[in-house]
Amino acid sequence: MSTISRSDVAYVAGLAQLDMDEAATERLVAEMNSILDYMAKLNELDTESVEPMMHAMALTNVFREDEVTPSLPRELALRGAPTHDDEYFTVPKILDAEGGGA
Amino acid sequence: MSNWFEKSAFEIREAVAGGTVTAREVATSFLDRIDAVDEKVGAYTQVWHDEALAQADAVDAKIAAGKLVGALAGVPISLKELICTQSGETTCSSKILAGFQSPYDATVTQKLLADDAVVLGKVNMDEFAMGSSTENSAVQKTSNPWDLSRVPGGSSGGSAASVASATSAISFGSDTGGSIRQPAAFCGCVGLKPTYGRVSRYGLVAFASSLDQIGPLTRDVRDAALAMNVISGKDPRDATSADLPAEDFTKKLGDSIAGLKIGLPKEYFVDALGSEVRALVEKATKVLEDQGAEIVEVSLPHTEYAVSVYYIVAPAEASANLARFDGVRYGFRHPDAKNVSEMYVKTKSEGFGEEVQRRIMLGTYVLSSGYYDAYYLKAQKVRTLITQDFDEAFKACDIILTPTTPSTAFTMGEKSNDPLEMYLNDIFTISANLAGIPGISLPCGTSASGLPVGFQLLSKAFDEATLLQTAHCYEQHADVNLGIPNL
Q1: Is the dihedral of CA B140, B131, A22, B361 positive or negative?
Q2: ipTM at complex level
Q3: Domains parsed from chain A with CATH numbers
Q4: What is the CATH number of domain B1-487?
Q5: How far apart are alpha carbons B313 and B210 in whole angstroms?
Q6: Could you tell me which chain B residue has the CA closest to the CA of A64?
Q7: What is the pLDDT of residues B381-430, one digit of tens each?
């Protein structure tokens, strides 16, 4: 498998929407390399003809009648939101004032 | 007369339903116990004094009116911080969910309340169940009641510490890679991880959805069986819950185990296993052999790959599950964000602790373009091999017996600087989650320094009844009684 560089960590942090400062990046380069080195052990196994296991228990599609049932009242659904109005969750603006995409 | 907080759930339920004690007296005994010792232990993150007494009064009123009461009538319980409750908060011991009030009860919570259990409060855990020591809680430290300088294990460390220190009769935790069984072993109580799909995950805040199960931590095996009777079953709100007829998990308790085949997997009795733990696990094996079980050697050849598979699959699923904590619908939102994308980044970076961020990073990496096949797909294939190992082994035996942990409880801070060393602590428990089978950890003695040691029994999927029968047989015939620690 491969070695993780500082730029890999920065790239993955971007995908994960996490802000990594210098110290955290440095630490994660070391830790992720050590953990992924350990995982390289899996390459000892020939899994060419093995099916991947996607579920703990064999499941087929679970169907139900498409019936309307009561759902969470709006007030309760909104209750935990940092900000909301009467009907919606509200967030800071999505496009910034300078016109650049967020 | 001994105190009510020292009694098992079974004894409490009998006494309450039979009218020899009120649910209020029992609840008061436990609440007083919490006040007396939990400052040292730190198991509880929230204690619901008034609400617990109100629930107890409601049970007493039912009994006074001659109504039938539930299977856990008047039994004081605690719930891990990631089981949703409309009362109080559901924080997952994370800063990102500080103050979060769930708009609904988990199915398990609903079932427990419907069966008249009395909820004393919520207990501590590693943040989002990621950890093996409860040191990753953003809320507080929890100590091992047998030695306050040591960890209680994790991630259900608050649950185990609470049952061991007699501040709840049953605690409900969750197990993704050993998070019920390992702390049960460290604290000297019984911990059961049910078969995947046995218990609804609705309202269990998700860590790794293909591995997570809720289960009980109890003082004895019968209490674990009673708890399973209440929480098991198909739930239309969890499509992965198994559609099986209701089962009485106490039905085989007391049955002989003569002729039962117990397999010892040779790959578990390796150098990493401490000599004290090994000796006590061998002694436990002898107890079962003396009761007529036939001990056979089995092989689980892919055991050494389980930690690698787990620490790919679980972080991958976690990185997807935890993406929902973005500051929009619930929990913490960073106050200084100029736009929505900055809000996401600042909220997650400040809201999630170090271990959670590490696992999100690992999970995101192994799922990212170019690495998916090398890591995630590879791990899912090896997961198949690990599961096939169990299928093979269970052709030769009914139950598999292993240690629960390589060592006894370690000291606080001892492993917190090396994530990989901490991960290796789960070496004996994670295979059961990968294969979906049930496992139970039981106390089998104490080390020379007085720390509890546990061993683990595993069964075929959905054969909890035989698992509990075997565990109960051991408990009845082993001379292991840890009692309650001096606090």
Answers
A1: negative
A2: 0.91
A3: 6-44 (1.10.20)
A4: 3.90.1300.10
A5: 9
A6: B236
A7: 999 999 999 999 999 999 999 999 999 999 999 988 888 888 888 899 99
